[in-house]
Amino acid sequence: MADTTEDSNFIFSRKAIVLTLEIALCLIATICKAMSFGCYLWGSIVELVWAIIIFIVYAMKLDVLLRFLPWTDFFRAITGTLLLFICSLVCLKFAVTNEFSMEIAGSVFGLLAATVFGFDTLCIIKQIKELNEESNIILI
């Protein structure tokens, strides 16, 4: 019988859509910031690379081999939220005072990416909580 659960096809799962959105927004923010030669380009690049790595790990179903992956993913998402939020606010203030339009666009996409990373953080917290409840049931 065919398995039609969310785990059987990662590409169409909510996690894949969120990771794809994170990758796309970080890529757009990186391109906009690179075009303006603005500030803090490295933040969006680091989060872009981490999102691609996590996407590949989940797509290749290596998450069943790595027990610590939900926590790694949690720290990636929470640092992405904080890093992109703070860097985008600083760059937005810098761009508005100096009237750099591409830097403003990059900062706005960085803030959108920070929002998506925040949503991913909340989803990961829910996933970790469910994993802990399952492990407590098995141990009893």
TrEMBL record:
Subcellular location: Membrane
Residue ranges of coiled coil: none
Membrane-topology annotation of the record: Multi-pass membrane protein
GO cellular component: membrane
Residue ranges constituting the MARVEL domain according to the UniProt record: 10-129
Claim: Membrane is one of the keywords in the record: yes
Entries under InterPro entries matching the protein: Marvel, MARVEL-CKLF_proteins
Keyword Transmembrane (UniProt): yes
Assigned keywords, A-Z: Membrane, Transmembrane, Transmembrane helix
Signal sequence, renumbered to the chain: none
Ranges that cross the membrane: 12-32, 39-59, 74-96, 108-128
Major subcellular location class: membrane
Function, as annotated: May play a role in cell differentiation in the intestinal epithelium.
Protein known as: Proteolipid protein 2
Organism of origin: Danio rerio
Classification lineage: Eukaryota, Metazoa, Chordata, Craniata, Vertebrata
Primary gene name: plp2a
